[in-house]
Design goal:
By secondary structure, this protein is of the alpha/beta class. It has one domain (2-218): Isochorismatase-like (Rossmann fold). The protein has helices at residues 27-30, 35-38, 44-47, 50-62, 83-87, 139-145, 158-171, 188-203, 211-218; strands at residues 2-4, 11-13, 18-23, 66-72, 97-98, 101-102, 125-128, 150-156, 175-184, 207-209. The strands form three sheets. The protein has a six-stranded parallel β-sheet, with helices on both faces. A two-stranded antiparallel ribbon has the order 1-2. Helix content is 34%, strand content 21%. The mean pLDDT is 97. The structure holds dicarbonimidic diamide.
Length: 220
């Protein structure tokens, strides 16, 4: 058993039964000219997570852990995009043409994972229509088939897709650790509160750590 320095207390894990899940590190959320920026957000807050994510990804690959990537998005005909999601925010963006193709549509550049964190052979990519990575996907089956019991979460955004996935995972019986410098939000106050909620009440949802502590446990 290995341990990662974490809050509210150290996180015990076995690399063979732990997966790194990189959530939605897509152009549309992280890079200028994507969905996030079209909504009026400052994407530099998310870009700051790329370097620490790269270091954790490299360490997980070195430790031969299962690495899974997720992408939020929809079919080109938007038949899997609920009306509420399409119109929420008062203006329609999803499916419209942007500088990197149709917003959050599968197969478009904006929807794809940024080159710095691009999946390599053997790393499953889970396409999800919602915020949580378990909702209407085969993620749970992939984790079960690989004997996974613990998750390390990185990605964006802290209070939306990362938080929803952490809660879904916890309810399904997985141990969840979030790397705080590897997750980001357009709203710093939401980021902080979202992490505090996870670790409160004796890790009610999971643990919080950082890239340095995770890497030193994975590749001592
Ligand atoms: C959002 C996400 N924020 N990946 N998606 O709409 O967090």
């Amino acid at each position: 058993m290995k341990h990662i320095e974490a809050q509210p207390f150290n996180y015990a894990f076995e690399p063979a039964s732990t997966a790194l899940v990189m959530i939605d590190m897509q152009h549309d959320f992280v890079k200028p000219r994507g969905f996030g920026e079209m909504l009026g957000n400052d994407v530099s807050l998310l870009e700051a997570t790329v370097q620490p994510c790269m270091r954790v990804l490299a360490a997980a690959r070195q430790a031969r852990m299962l690495v899974i990537h997720t992408r939020e998005g929809h079919r080109p005909d938007l038949s899997d995009c609920l009306p509420a999601k399409l119109t929420r925010g008062g203006k329609t963006f999803i499916g419209t043409q942007g500088p990197m193709g149709r917003i959050l549509v599968r197969g478009e550049k904006g929807h794809d994972i940024i080159s710095e964190l691009y999946p390599i052979a053997g790393e499953p990519v889970v396409d999800k229509p919602g915020k949580g990575a378990f909702c209407q996907t085969d993620l749970h089956m992939i984790l079960q088939a690989n004997g996974i019991r613990s998750l390390i979460l990185c990605g964006v955004t802290t209070e939306v897709c990362v938080n929803t996935t952490a809660r879904e995972a916890n309810d399904r019986g997985f141990e969840v650790l979030i790397a705080e410098d590897c997750v980001g939000s357009y709203f710093p106050e939401f980021h902080r509160a979202a992490l505090d909620m996870i670790k409160a009440q004796g890790a009610i949802v999971g643990w919080i750590s950082d890239s340095r502590s995770i890497i030193s446990a994975l590749v001592p």
